[in-house]
Amino acid sequence: MKMKNIDDFQLIVDEEIKRQHRNLEPKELYEPIWYTLSNGGKRLRPVLVLMGCQLFSDRIEEAVLPAIGIEMFHNFTLLHDDIMDKAFLRRNRPTVHIKWDVNRAILSGDALAIQSNIFISSCSREVLPEVLNVFLTTALQVCEGQQYDLNFEIKSMVSVDEYMNMIRLKTAVLLAGSLQIGAIIGGAGKDWAQRVYDLGCELGMAFQLQDDLLDTFGDEDVFGKSIGGDILSDKKTFLLIKAYEQASPEQAKVLDDCYSGKCTDPDQKVKEVRKIFMDLGIDQMTRKKVREYLYSALAILEELPVEKERKTELENFTRSLMDRVR
Questions:
Q1: Nearest to 180 by CA among 163, 159, 201
Q2: Could you tell me the CA-to-CA distances from 62 to 90, 122, 200, 228 in Å, in that order?
Q3: Has domain 6-323 been given CATH number 1.10.600.10?
Q4: Alpha helix positions (H), 153-248
Q5: What sign does the dihedral 71-73-78-82 (CA atoms) show?
Q6: Pairing with 128, which of 145, 162, 262, 272 sits 20 to 30 Å away (CA)?
Q7: pTM for this one?
Q8: Which pLDDT score is estimated for 223?
Q9: Where residue 262 falls among pLDDT bands split at 50, 70, 90?
Q10: Domain range list for the chain
Q11: If we measure between CA atoms, which residue out of 37, 11, 146 comes closest to residue 93?
């Protein structure tokens, strides 16, 4: 059987989402859900479910509905995150609570979360307990990560270890759980499904650190949003934490001024913080850390006892992430 690629998987996911969300009532509940699910994106998490399944099986159709469930859960978290962050835009469109209202956004988010459980539970009876255990554990960890992220907003200083644990929970575990659920459905044994999870965790850590890097040093046209958003919102990212570790007293004072509200010109704030990051080599340090995680993911992929052609698409995806930070 010819192995499917990422484009194939994205098409499968998009078509199934459309099929599942036609003409649902009441429209007041489901219209914001469809608006959320149709709001672009590369469908990374459901694609990883299907990739994880293809590593061990040709029967990827068995993983399609659980993959949709993962996408619904991810979008539920985004919808509620936007409420907590008081965000006005998501992928250049008004967020649900702005387009409609907070009550509808909360209720539609709740419905998305419930739908995600229904779709995840559609897998075969033989693997259902294991799949549910991975999904529910992962879902709770994502909530824990979000709480740590909220805690960081009022902490004066965050350590690298604290930050890495937060992004592991908030971002990496969902990518890891997606791959693992696919592998379980595909028939991987417990030990190899765990190694697939480990691979996904390395990818997830690289993915978030890469996001931090691109938010400050990316190309706006390629990245798809304005550069410097994390700086302007005073986010304690890996880059900022490492900068404080390396900064001279003079550089630390500039950072203090920028992050205490003394710098009122947004463009100047981004310019000054970026300069310190570059003077300290924080951009290169972050690139190196991203590559370490990606090389670790590739090493785990090499271990997996499956034909090389089954690994090709996941390897290509991993190397494409590496290309983004060169």
A1: 201
A2: 31, 9, 20, 42
A3: yes
A4: 160-167, 173-185, 190-217, 220-223, 229-232, 238-246
A5: positive
A6: 145
A7: 0.94
A8: 52
A9: confident
A10: 6-323
A11: 37
